[in-house]
Amino acid sequence: MDPLAHAHTPTKLKRSGLDDLPLTVKTPNYETDELTPGIVHIGLGNFHRAHQAWYIHQLMQQGLAQDWAIIGAGIRGYDASMREKLIAQDCLTTLIELDPSGMSAEVIGPMISYLPIETENAPLIRQMSDPAIRIVSLTVTEGGYYLDANTGAFDATHDDIRHDAEHPHHPRTAFGAIVAALRQRRDAGINPFTALSCDNLQGNGTILRNCVVGLARLSDPDLAEWINHNGAFPNSMVDCIVPATTDQVLSQCLALGIEDHAPVTHENFRQWVIEDDFCAGRPSWEQVGVTMTNNVHIYEAMKLRILNGGHQLLANVGEILNVPTISDCMQDPQISDFFVKVQRDEILPQVAPVPGTSPAQYLDLVARRFSNAAIHDTTRRVAFDGSSRHPGFLLPSLREALVTGSPIAGLALAAALWARMCAGTREDGTEIAPNDPIWSALHKTALVAKENPQAWIDQTGLYGELGQNRLFAQEFSHWLPAIWDRGCRAVIGSYLRSSSDL
């Protein structure tokens, strides 16, 4: 049934007005006063609300997890806008599921508060110090973990980290706030909480442990040892395609009969795999489809390399050719063939199967999801922060292919397409607006690389030692000038005809 057929004058989203929403909209069957907090989530954006919060909501709908309500938190000034919108609607969110067969809406309410955003994070530290908080989860993006680009280790020299080490009671980072809260808990005789990363990083729990413990060690080695010994940092893998909220999404929500100023659209697919390692209890997530395991690595490797890596294969060429969305890229026969060939020839051979799914089966699933035209996921959103996403999602496959002797021409071409995109213009002459935290440096290098391709892969902060690999340098230095001289389509056509010979 199409919910739009039953839409009426929009109802302002408030807990007191849930009964006034259209009958086609699913609403919470639990009351706010039944809930007590158990989770603080830092970096509360669209993905968290469509994914982790949805799982907690499903448990609450069953009368479970009433003591695991979520308190939202942010650490940057731009989080204040999201806080204002959500507080105004009692922290409720409308989730709009977009599927080729139709659209449906659900209002979820596991979030009960959103902390004020303050420079030194006092409200956040105070809340995380509360013994009721047993999990602190994060979505702070792949590039938000202060990692050394060459080694992947915690970067203790970063200005933000040095500030927090020198001013541990007045931190500016999420990790500094976590350390400050754990210090207060230790001093008060309260056990630590579990810190749960939900970002797209392989070994994200291990990385989070290294950041928190590494930062604590700079100012209080005894605290660092206490955290490392008593705390928990489970690895996890998250998956759901969640586009940015646009004016079109706001209009869709109004058409459904809901006045929500921060609705979220998502696909009809979710997956969450978590290492079952918690130091202060956890919700019974397995009852709502979460995979609890002690071998997250194989799941995350498959997802990060095939899905997230595949996103980069599509988004960069899509931006250069002004193809608006990921589904549009999949409908373009040449771009889609490029995506499939790089995956099958160069990425899948480096990916191990997971229980019940082979890499080839997972690729087929990803291709169907990417082809969902109801999901208006822009190439610009997916191409954002390539300086984190290429090293995290494509280069691991490249490194392993070089070791195993597998083909690398398509992965080298993907790197060349990214370099071409960072030059800042499309082939139709329109501008590609800055789209990376280090865009200025990327743009400058991309222009130099037009005449000297090696300059691009000599960016050791991105490529490490790969730029000195003879085979990769040869392939890359063939593709990038060819893209500039002949255009993307001619070059991709050449790759599709013969991916292993220059």
Characterization of this structure:
This protein is α/β, with parallel strands linked by helices and 502 residues long. The chain folds into two domains: 3-293, Rossmann fold (3-Layer(aba) Sandwich), CATH 3.40.50.720; 297-497, N-(1-d-carboxylethyl)-l-norvaline Dehydrogenase, domain 2 (Orthogonal Bundle). 46% of the residues lie in helices and 11% in strands. The chain contains 21 helices and 13 strands. The chain has helices spanning 46-50, 52-61, 79-88, 122-129, 159-166, 174-187, 204-219, 221-230, 247-255, 296-320, 326-331, 333-347, 359-370, 379-383, 386-404, 409-421, 439-449, 454-457, 460-463, 470-486, 488-497, and strands spanning 11-12, 37-42, 69-73, 93-99, 102-108, 111-114, 135-138, 194-197, 236-239, 258-259, 264-266, 271-275, 291-293. The protein has a five-stranded parallel sheet, with helices on both faces. Helix 10 (296-320) crosses helix 15 and helix 16 (409-421) packs across helix 20. The longest helix is centred in the middle third of the chain and has 25 residues, at 296-320. The chain starts with 10 loop residues before the first strand and ends in a 5-residue tail after the last helix. The mean pLDDT is 95. One of its GO terms (molecular function) is mannitol 2-dehydrogenase activity. Residues 295-484 form the Mannitol dehydrogenase C-terminal domain. Pfam families: Mannitol_dh (PF01232), Mannitol_dh_C (PF08125). Residues 38-286 form the Mannitol dehydrogenase N-terminal domain. Its EC number is 1.1.1.67.
